[in-house]
Predict the structure.
Amino acid sequence: MEIIGDLRVMMSSDKILKEDKLHIFLLGSGGPINNKLRVAPSIAVIAGGEFILVDVGPGSYRNVEVLRLPVAHLSGIFLTHFHSDHIGDLGEANVMSWANGRTKALEIFGPKGIDKVVNGFIMAYELDKEYRFAHHGEDVVSLEAGTPISKVISFQDPNEKELIFDRNGLKVYAFEVDHSPVKPAVGYRIEFKGNTIVITGDTIKTENLVKHSNNADILFSEAISFDMLNIVIAGAAKRNLTRLVKILTDIQEYHMELVEAAELAKEADVKKLVYVHITPPLPNKMAEKVYLKGVSEVYNGDFIIGDDNMKFRLDPKE
Ligand SMILES: [Zn+2]
Ligand SMILES: [Zn+2]
């Protein structure tokens, strides 16, 4: 196999854009605690010639290029909320898809506050944009396509989902979740030709979440093992790591416990449950087993622990 000089490793594959399937790539399956096994949250969806990302946590954009996804065709980024583990690679995703041939401005969707986040990234990357333009010129990097556009999501009725993207059969709905004090925060329901995936974002279990996860083919649910976290907390308390104890205790108030996520999957009649935002990190198979404790007693559908670069493909039903 030719490695040096093999251009394939540097080129994205556009073939996938023409396939009549719903493709999902789990780019980042980790949570906010950095570890060598998983990067922070991000999911790529490709269908009907459209390519979107949901969240762009630190380190996740790298996997877009590792998987050779068609970056020049990236048309939208959907943020669930603005914690750093969900937005850290926003600048990278915008600049690198632009430098690699994107010719239209990237639309970045998110709840109230999105313009502040997007404008901050625009300012932070302004000089980089000028350098690249000066170096390569308008024919290679169009100035207009380099500046992203923020799109704010608002709800007429907080209990209903809102259609915010509808192109070539790919529909993205946003719905409100509860990640208080992070307000507002949203989850996404994505549909293509009879298939549905739901991405919870960070949230506790709510009625609205159950309602909008209804009948999903795949539910990508955040999940924290409170049991495992409490073991970490006990260890930290013994060493007088009071700051860590406080933070790890606090996060249990605004995240979902993984058996609760299994209850959500059951109540919403979800076909497959994929755990993401894995917290705490799971260093080995034994830890994975402990992590999943209690899930099969609640939910009898298919469930798995998500891994970085896991791929899913759904054939059209209609
Ligand atoms: Zn969060
Ligand atoms: Zn998070």
